[in-house]
Amino acid sequence: MEDGITAIEHGADAAAAVAEAAGAHADSGIHIALAAEQLGVFFGIPITNTLITSWAVILILFVIAFFVGRSIKMIPGRVQTLFETMISFILDYMTEVLEDAKLARKLFPLITTLFLFIFASNILEFTPGIGSFGLIEHTALGEVFTPILRSVNTDLNVTLALAIIAFVTIEVVGVATLGFVKYTKKFINFSSPLAFLVGIIELFSEVARLISFSFRLFGNIFAGEVLILVIVSFVPYFIPVPMMLFEVFVGLIQAAIFALLTLFFVKMAITPVPEH
Amino acid sequence: MEEIASVFGLNWKLLLIQAVNFGVLLLVLRYFLYTPVLKMLDERREKVEKGVKDAEAAGVRIQEIEDERDGVLKEASNEASNILSNSKERSVEQASQITTDANAQAETILESANLRSQELKEQALRESKEEIGKAAILAAEVILRDKK
């Protein structure tokens, strides 16, 4: 664990060094920043470009949901069929995994929203204009370009927030289904030394999910973004297209993984410890 | 730890805002998309279920009606054949009745005719006897008269 943190710190240092170096040659090199760029401060809240993009994603999803939900008919049109197929597929799959139709129905909004939000954010990454419009600041180091929009999941704040939401949901559902005592027994178990050890390991892996959840999504999307940025800076035309296609696929997969893992962890949380 | 946070731009305010944003999105999607779509899916499932049940019931009813119709048809044809055979029997009976009646009548007529002829014969005989008697008396008178 300690090694992991130092490794991350080293990585962070290196990245910071890269970012600083990039900042130093802002007008010549590739500008890569691990942290989302801050555009301003509003009532003490830092307004970052990912925050603005996440609002845009929410607005887009809201508009789609509004127009689809408003015109729901008994005999569905194409768009309605698409959404109905998707929603009934997700719900059926969740019921199958959780083996509990009621719980599946309760968790359905969360899982689906996780998927839709992450997927929409990752798809929006490739909208022309994202990352191209920005503010140019004249600093001592020269001109610093700050894009107004930045892919939502390249900000650890977002992925960590989602991870915390998923984590809390998993724990709450586990406690609500099994009861506090039975659920705690999964992690703190004095029935035998081995059970105690297993419980501690379980506890660690449970908490480590926060990190794995958030860094998996962040890392995948950020790496894709950097990869495309690098390729574009070398070969601007045609070559980036298959890579972008691949990144769209990665975006879909990551959204599905996030939602699916949340679902599976919920299933694990509501499964009682087998009595040995 | 703090260094990591600053490198990744972690900020509890942003974290909270993003979480709230997601929560709002969840509520909005639930209200505008999931609830109506799921409601419609449920409604349609119910409707299909009802349709299937109705179709099954209708099938059963059709079977019943067909059975009923078959029964009625069978009964009707039975009755018709009954009526036909009855009427045949009766007509045969009637014909034989008529024949016997006619025979009997003919016999009575014949008999009465015979009787009558017998009577006439007897009468004629009787009359002729009387005549003969008278004629004999007359002849005797004539003979007597002549002898005188």
Helix/strand layout:
The complex is a heterodimer of chains A (276) and B (148).
Chain A: H1 2-24, E1 38-42, E2 45-48, H2 49-70, H3 78-98, H4 101-124, E3 134-139, E4 142-147, H5 156-178, H6 180-184, H7 193-234, H8 240-270
Antiparallel strand pairs in A: 1-2, 3-4
Helix pairs in contact in A: 2-4, 3-4, 4-8, 5-7, 5-8, 7-8
Chain B: H1 2-7, H2 12-147
Keywords for this entry:
heterodimer, A: two-stranded antiparallel ribbon, two-stranded antiparallel sheet, B: 148 residues, mainly alpha, 96% helix, 0% strand
Structure report:
The complex is a heterodimer of chains A (276) and B (148). Chain A is mainly alpha-helical and 276 residues long. Chain A has one domain (35-270). Chain A has helices at residues 2-24, 49-70, 78-98, 101-124, 156-178, 180-184, 193-234, 240-270, and strands at residues 38-42, 45-48, 134-139, 142-147. Chain A has a two-stranded antiparallel ribbon with strand order 1-2. Chain A has a two-stranded antiparallel sheet with strand order 3-4. The model of chain A is unreliable at 1-8 and 21-27 (pLDDT under 50). Chain B has 148 residues and is mainly alpha-helical. Chain B has one domain. Chains A and B meet through α1, β2, α2, α3 and α4 of A and α1 and α2 of B.
